[in-house]
Amino acid sequence: MGTSTPQLTEEQLAALADELDEIRRELVDDLGDEDAAYIRGIVATGQRLEALGRALLWAGWFPPAWLAGTAALSVAKILDNMEVGHNVMHGQYDWMGDPTLNSKMFEWDTVCPAEQWRHTHNYVHHTYTNILGKDRDIGYGLLRMLDEQRWRPYYRGNPVYAVVLMLAFEWGVMLHDLEIDRLLSGRRKWSDTKGIRRQMWHKGVKQTLKDYVLFPLLSGPGAMATLTGNAVANLVRNVWAFSIIFCGHFPDGVASFSEDECEDESRGHWYYRQMLGSANIDGGKLFHILSGNLGFQIEHHIFPDIPAWRYQRIAPRVREICDRYGLNYTTGPLGKQVGSVWRKIYRLARRPPDRPRTVLTGASRVPAEAA
Amino acid sequence: MKNHDTGLTRRFLASRVVTALAEPHGVDRYLNLVNPLWSVRDVRARVVAIARRTPDTVTMTLRPNGLWAGARAGQYVRFGVDIDGVRRIRCFSLAGSAAGAGPLEITAKVNPAGTVTRWLATRARPGLLVHLSQAEGEFTLPDQVGPHVLLISGGSGITPTMSIARTLRDVRYPGRVTILHYARTPDDVVYRAELARLARTCPRFTVTYRYTGSKRNGHFRAQHLRAITPDYADAHAFVCGPAGLLDAVSRHWAAEGISDRLRIERFTVAGAPFLGDPGTVAGELWFSRSGIRVPGDGRTLLEQAEAAGLRPAFGCRMGICHTCGSHKPEGPVRDVRTGVISAEPDEQVRLCVNTPAGDVEIAI
């Protein structure tokens, strides 16, 4: 990944874990009314925007109403998926004991069934972050996002696949748990996916029915305006979510790891890997709300179940710790990070020079072997 | 929703079409924007009055939404209130009459070391929104009530017996009602004035107090009963109060061989002793979502999780409300109430009433 990273000793890793555990303890002790009011406020704002958007789309034959309605609905869906859905499903608000904000009970306004998301994201991705061969978020079984993934002619289409994934992101996220690449290569049996396919079907039908049949029908003669408004809102959310998520782990400066170096890892090494394997995005208050505070991807990865709006407050301390241990704290403005990601998508589509190669990763040299 | 003409509205809001339009969050999330009391699914209530009738109790009057299905005399509700961002759930007996559809009444003893009752007594204000279950519990009048009802209570255990007494008064029960209440001092009797009025206006009701704070009276003894109603063995008897009272009364009824005529309401787990052989808990407790491992000891999963710095959701802490239900991927746990060990993989366990009985993984 081009960035040389210091190897920490076991003692340093243990000290690092102690420091971060201490921050975590402080955060947990401080949870209370403020967090509850914040997340309920975001939920209510999203709900109001959704109601407003759908109401405006009834008058969608009038172009300004269509534009405003679509914009309101887009923002509502973005809030629902990012600052509410993603964060609630991490269990960030489970301590509140509110069933509507409970990670196990929450469903979000996208076609991916929440239960499957919790498995692929909370468990697989957050446990095995950036371990090649373990973290299925590296290219989603579809893209080549690391030099260490072995090139195949299939990857010539890397940019095309990325554009398709971006535009249809909610469907891509839905299909993620099928592990299509493993189905194609025979490592997973189609019959094993029966249960999750049924869940996908039910959720997909409900979402499609709502946005593309029922609300358009309710609009009577304005059905087309409502249909297109809903479609565009889903599209806007798709592009936004894709961009934020791809900036979280794929910009230059982010490290990846091999299975070997993470075997029986200590808590300190887990923290170390989370910090080196994630990248932040600089931005203002509104940007952070709309991105579900994933602009603080590093803080999110070390404390995935702490309410995300608190990451901003601890970010300077985390950065200071990174500096002190000589760890790269990758961050940059959205435009720069998006550019970095797309350049990488293009670069990795090309066949690498033909020579036996090993690549310097975050912490050590690993053979060029793909998932 | 209001109680009267809104049945139709509620049926419409709960219809399949409206539900499909409100996917995936449900209609309630949108109704909440208009009025937080409205729901098509959950019983919620507004606190309309709060009073401190004795120094260590708090009495609340609640007006529930239209989903409230009513209660039988003597039942309790699971009562949820948000305190510092956390929904706390406690079980409280209803004190009001089950006849008629008046507001609900709850009287709770204020636990000076507790979270909820202390907050209710000092911080709660009328207008507060609370979350209720439907009424639950078997401490109720049977369908066929015999000619004599005996109500024995201690401390705040007076609330369900109050509900039974008020209901018997309102339905003009033709038999006798004997009330024997244990309190520390006369000032600690919550419903003293009302009980006095009841005894004065309804000659079928007799009310007797015993004060545990005085030497002459003391705790439950069979003589107390014989003095007021020698034929107590024939009565439908109900007892609710502290564990000591319940144990003494149920022992006495058992000794007389009339346990089938006694109903007991137990508010707290009678101790939660560790029942296992210490050798079986040498395992490791792994809170897998937090990545924390601790050696298992005799305490409950909930206590150990909290000691490890986690804040899992919990409610009653006595195995009733399921709030702390958590996913247990694997490992044996022992139910402290029954001593039964379950090693079923992938089951939901209540953290508050289970202790580890070996290597256990809990997904919190």
Would you write up a description of this structure?
The complex is a heterodimer of chains A (371) and B (364). Chain A has 371 residues and is mainly alpha-helical. Chain A has one domain (10-347). Helices cover 57% and strands 4% of the residues of chain A. Chain A is built from 14 helices and four strands. In chain A, the strands form two sheets. A two-stranded parallel sheet of chain A has the order 1-2. In chain A, a hairpin with a 4-residue loop joins strand 3 and strand 4 (365-367). In chain A, helix 1 (10-30) runs antiparallel to helix 13. Chain A is globular, with a radius of gyration of 21 Å. Chain B has 364 residues and is of the alpha/beta class. Among the domains of chain B are: 1-41, no CATH class; 148-265, 3-Layer(aba) Sandwich (Rossmann fold), CATH 3.40.50; 278-362, Beta-grasp domain (Ubiquitin-like (UB roll), Roll), CATH 3.10.20.30. In chain B, 21% of the residues lie in helices and 28% in strands. Chain B contains nine helices and 19 strands. In chain B, strand 1 (43-51) and strand 2 form a beta hairpin. The longest helix of chain B has 13 residues, at 158-170. At the A-B interface, helix 1, helix 2 and helix 8 of A face helix 2, helix 3 and strand 4 of B.
A few lines on this structure:
By secondary structure, chain A is mainly α. Chain A is about 55% helix and about 5% strand.
